[in-house]
Design brief:
eleven-stranded mixed beta sheet; Spore Coat Polysaccharide Biosynthesis Protein SpsA, Chain A; 7 helices; alpha/beta; two-stranded antiparallel sheet
């Protein structure tokens, strides 16, 4: 696919930050006050992305815009999508016990009508690295189609936190580097023996440290949004009364693969990943960014 429209970067920034305890999307980590997602936007601009769409909650939209727009509004096109519990739930009476957002798949669905070109989707609070965006842009410009998506893959052992458990989409990858399935594990950590395990309601199980994992860096054709809508309705029928049930992007990706609607290529990256799940992660993230600035991977001020 050789397209003329520049790809779009969609940033998931509507999360409640429950484990982190503050609005980590706008916390400063860089030497000139940059947030983590500013490094993603900087990398996206130099990789050739043409627009960034932020998925946020409307209740913090103004403070978010004030913090973000003055820095790079003249460098890339900006748009916003608001995620709320009532979006795409027509005909359903939302239970009073439902406070938690519907999940990343629902957040992506909220982009319907706003994103009409091949796009990548990432988390606001993860640092993905320059190589990942270069690989994503190359795929979106040259390979992406209605039948072929991709996912940027990282090693599980390189994505753990020393300060608590993490949620990861553990990938099964075929010999020809196609995604077979994603298993969403919401509690992964190293045990006392240093082994990587995941825990769910049925027990504790080992998981290979070299497993490829999804860090929610996907590359999609815009036709994924119609599939998100279809599958979200199916999700509601099954889980509407469960106040903690979430509709994740990997659910849609698995459906796409399992129903032979197309294939998902796993694109490995040499980029360094790090992120902030807990407050205790912040100093390490700041030190890692300072090291990248010192090595001239990034300028001291991204937007100067």
């Amino acid at each position: 696919m050789n397209q003329t429209t520049k790809p779009t970067l969609v940033i998931l920034a509507a999360g409640m930050a429950s484990r982190y305890g503050s609005m980590k999307q706008t916390q400063s980590f860089g030497p000139s006050g940059e947030t983590i997602m500013e490094y993603s936007i900087y990398d996206a601009i130099r990789a050739g992305f043409g627009k960034v769409v932020f998925i946020i909650r409307e209740d913090f939209a103004e403070s978010f815009k004030q913090a973000i727009e003055p820095k790079f509004a003249d460098k890339i096109q900006i748009d916003y999508v608001f995620q709320s519990l009532d979006k795409f739930t027509e005909g359903w009476a939302i239970p009073e016990t439902r406070v938690k957002p519907w999940g990343t798949g629902h957040a992506l669905l909220c982009c319907k009508g706003k994103v009409n070109e091949p796009f990548s989707v990432i988390n606001a609070d993860d640092f993905y690295g320059r190589d990942a965006f270069a690989k994503a842009a190359d795929f979106l410009n040259n390979e992406c189609s209605e039948q072929l998506y991709s996912i940027v893959g990282y090693y599980l052992k390189n994505t753990l936190s020393e300060n608590g458990s993490v949620s990861r989409g553990v990938c099964e990858v075929t010999a020809d580097q196609l995604l077979h399935s994603i298993h969403e594990r919401t509690k992964i950590y190293r045990n006392e023996d240093g082994e990587v395990v995941y825990e769910d309601e049925s027990g504790i199980y080992p998981v290979p440290a070299d497993s490829a994992v999804s860090m929610n860096f996907f590359c999609f054709h815009p036709n994924i949004l119609a599939l998100c809508e279809e599958q979200f309705q199916a999700f509601l029928k099954r889980n509407f009364k469960d106040p903690k049930a979430e509709f994740f992007i990997p659910f849609v990706v698995n459906y796409f693969i399992n129903h032979e609607l197309g294939k998902v290529k796993v694109v490995p990256t040499t980029a360094q990943w790090f992120g902030v799940t807990y407050k205790e992660d912040a100093p390490g993230v700041q030190a890692s960014i300072n090291q990248l600035v010192a090595s001239e991977e990034y300028p001291n001020n991204l937007w100067a």
